[in-house]
Amino acid sequence: MNDNRIKKIAIVGGGTAGWVMASSLARSLEKSPCEIVVIESPDIGIIGVGEATIPSFVDFVHFLGIAENEFIQATKATFKLGIKFTHWRRLGHEYWHQFGAVGFNIDAKPFYQHWLKYRKNGGEIEYTEFSPSVVMAKKGKFYIPPQGKQSGIAGSEYAWHFDAGLVAEFLASYSLARGVMRIKDTVQKVSLTPSGSIQSLSLSDGSSVDADFYVDCTGQKGLLIGEAMGEKYLDWGHYLPVDRAVAVPTENADEINPYTDSIARSCGWQWRIPLQHRTGNGYVYSSDYCSAEDATELLLNNVKEKPIADPRVLKFTTGKRQQIWKKNCLAVGLSAGFLEPLESTGIYLSMKSALSFIQMFPDINCHEATIREYNRLMDDEYECIRDFIVLHYCVSERRDSKFWRDCRTRPVPDTLREKLSLFRNQGRLVKNDLDLFSAGSWYAVLEGMGVRPLDYDHTIDSSDFERVQKILLSDFVKLGDITESLPSHNEYLDRLATLK
Question: How far apart are alpha carbons 77 and 166 in whole angstroms?
Fold first, then answer.
């Protein structure tokens, strides 16, 4: 039999995407003879917008075999229990998108349906008030119960805020310690075979790199998959018009909130992400409605602490490559696509791209059936996240600026239109196992944005409604009492700092 195994993989581009890919391969192929090399240009820095994550990145760190405390200390990380949305539905209104469960099923029926009936009968407690994560976040609390012990806050989940530059450095050290090679140089030329696959890379020092497979982590220009291989980029700007971000770090606040702030502004939205050593701030906006100068002024007028660096403006195009994997080249990170950082999915998509590739790891032939299936799965990932982000804009009640008035008339993806149509009847959601966001996430944002179904699922009428109300009220009080006794987020971070 011929040996068709992939023996060498070249990753072009470092940064978070490149080192997420390298560390994933190093972990998964540690007993394989496959050589992994990262070609990292010394002239390109890390964009650093993706400083907030979702819970699956904690799982990724576990997959790599890294101790959480080691990672947290090295990356100046803090904990994130969800996102607080302010001014999104209308000026002065706020709601939460939680991590983890909201309530629990009653009589084997979804909690949301019981809550919906409760609200239709005059109940006043908000949906996410039954989320342990939201209750902790509102009180500035945080706690992870020791393994095997009950804390009364089951259903809470968490992610991290961290310094993206430090994460790249940490994952680079992890990868290099496991045999990954690093070349600090710039790719000057990409040579293709007659069939259109990548044959070799020419570097600025005159050397060349040959590999069996190539990973493009070169950002939105897509040096390999876009410029060399000609793969088209699908622009989703008609759905999501924001195309700029101005970012500035500030000194840290005394109290570090265990959540991300997302504050809707006149032409987009502002983020606030607290780390151990600084706070990340930014304004994501549309250049069709706002100049870079005006965006910078708005951001600086709305940061709470003193800036510690000059603001910088970043340009991006929301969308994705038509094919993320083409022949012997895989795009990861911004070269594959970009969905604005509203729900902190950028690093997740790099991680998902890497792990899905490993699950479908090819031989040197890169069979088309494998490539098609990978692209189908990743397309679904991107489209589900796109729809979830569009939801935040398209149902807003704001009319105070042209940006927000136009959001109501922008096209909506057919898939989202169908989800909204189904939901508005009896609160049912389209079932899609590939959707990153759970039913609880969709319910939280839909309710937060004022989209409530006309009726509930009447199969829950078989439950004793008086008993259900008592359960809801009892659990609400119990959750508040338990949370009150937990340490503050600052105290929890201080405890971790003392651990070796």
Answer: 10
Nearest to residue 223, comparing CAs of 431, 44, 475, 404? 44
Where exactly are the structural domains of the chain? 8-51+163-235+317-366, 98-156+388-484, 244-315
- Outline where DSSP puts E strands in 178-275: 181-184, 187-192, 198-203, 208-209, 213-216, 233-235, 244-250, 260-265, 268-274
**433: its two tokens:** 């196992």
Angle between the 414-426 and 368-394 helix axes, to the nearest 10 degrees?
60
- Reading the block at residue 182, the tokens are 């690093």
In three-state secondary structure terms, 333 is helix
Separation CA 275–CA 253 (nearest Å): 9
DSSP state of 487: P
Percent of the chain past pLDDT 70, that is, above it, reads 96
Distance, CA of 381 to CA of 374 (rounded, Å)? 11
pLDDT for position 43 = 74
Question: Would you say the pTM of this structure is higher than 0.90?
Answer: yes
Q: How far apart are CA 13 and CA 219, in angstroms?
A: 8
Contact 335, 222 (CB under 8 A): yes
For 8-51+163-235+317-366, the fitting CATH number among 3.40.462.10, 3.40.50.150, 3.50.50.60, 3.90.960.10 is 3.50.50.60
Alpha helices in 209-341 (DSSP H): 292-302
